[in-house]
Every structure is written in structure tokens, then in C-alpha cells.
Design a protein that fits this description.
Radius of gyration: 14 Å
Mean pLDDT: 89
Oligomer: single chain
Order of helices and strands: EEEEEE
Low-confidence stretches: none
Shape: elongated
Number of strands: 6
Strand order of the largest sheet: 1-4-5
Length: 71
Amino acid sequence: SDRHDSGASVARITMIDPKGEKFDPHQHQAMCTVDSDLAPNTVVQVMQKGYKLHDRIMRPALVSVSKAQGT
């Protein structure tokens, strides 16, 4: 990988980029729900990535989430 860590790994800051993952209210903040072919409560789009320091959420990821079929 040619990605250069600018010291972020030293401070144990992890980016939260949950596209395609199941919505987790502890790490993600749903901005809206959208119609999607994905399973309900799946992150469809990430508007703003989140960050956590060790296991503490510094900023949740702002996401749109797929809604249940027929709702």
C-alpha cells in the first residue's frame, strides 16, 4: 500500500467509513433513509466520515440508511 500514515496510527485514530455496512447507532448518525435494493438498515452513502480514538467515538459518520421495503 502506498498510503502514508501521517502519525494517525500512533494516536490510534481510526476512520469510520461504513458504506455497505449495517447501520450502528453508536458509530453512525443517520441523516436520512432512502429506498435501496440493499438490506434494511444498511449504510447506503457516507456524507461525512467519522473518527474514533482507540474505541471512543470522536465524531460519528453521517450516513444515509436503506429503509425497509414497503415503508
